[in-house]
Structure formats: C-alpha cells, structure tokens
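Hi R.,

As promised on Friday, here is the backbone we talked about, encoded as structure tokens. Could you run it through your design pipeline when you get a chance and send me back a sequence?
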C-alpha cells in the first residue's frame, strides 16, 4: 500500500490556509468554517500517515487516532515529547468541533489554530522516519 496520506495532508493544509485568507478578506464565515474543516482533515491525514508508517492498523475514527499516539508514545519517547495526542485533541476541538460545527471563529485565534497544523504535519513527518 502506497502511503499518500502525507502529501494529501499538505495539500489540504495549503488549501485551508488559502481559503481562510480569502474568507478573511471577504468576511465570509461559511468559507472560514470550510477552511477550518480542511485544516482538520490535514491533521487526520497526517495522523493516518503516521499509523501506516509505524505499521499500525489504519484508524477508523478520531477515537482510534487518539489511542494510537498514546500507545506509540509508550514505546517511542519522541512521540510523547511532541505531545501529539494533546495537539491532535486540541485541533479536533478548536477546528472541527468549535469552528466548523459550532461556528465559533475568532479570526486571530482561528488563524493561529490553522498555522499549528503545519507544525503538526512537520512533526509527524519527522517522527515517521525515525
């Protein structure tokens, strides 16, 4: 199985960032919410990439994605040290639940949340190669 999750995560992140900037210019809350969901999907895809690279079964839910980093962190200190579980959960809550579903969007805070996705993806990429 070819693992394309990382490249897809990067594509979704780039699209989320571009879309969010456009939404800010247009003051379009619907587009902002869509950008947040794309950023969240980038997190999901990056996490899937880690699972495949670490030879774990592909997760079927966010719950599975939370348990994977927790278990991997017990075996690999670099995963625990990067707080992947905490960061995954924070993006789940802030981007997916609050911004996309509830519609709570503070432009400065939300833009920062989207930027944190880039760092998450980069950390996943480094950890997967270890």
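Update: got your reply. Pasting your designed sequence below so it's all in one thread:
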């Amino acid at each position: 199985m070819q693992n394309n999750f990382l490249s897809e995560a990067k594509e979704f992140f780039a699209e989320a960032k571009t879309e969010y900037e456009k939404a800010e210019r247009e003051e379009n809350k619907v587009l902002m919410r869509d950008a947040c969901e794309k950023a969240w999907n980038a997190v999901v895809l990056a996490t899937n990439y880690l699972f495949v690279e670490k030879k774990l079964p592909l997760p079927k839910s966010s719950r599975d994605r939370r348990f994977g980093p927790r278990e991997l962190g017990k075996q690999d200190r670099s995963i625990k040290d990067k707080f992947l579980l905490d960061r995954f959960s924070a993006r789940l809550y802030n981007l997916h639940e609050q911004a996309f579903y509830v519609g709570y969007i503070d432009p400065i805070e939300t833009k920062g949340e989207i930027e944190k996705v880039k760092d998450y993806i980069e950390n996943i990429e480094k950890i997967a190669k270890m």
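One thing I noticed while checking it: Residues 5-128 form a domain with the Four Helix Bundle (Hemerythrin (Met), subunit A) fold (CATH 1.20.120).

Thanks again,
M.
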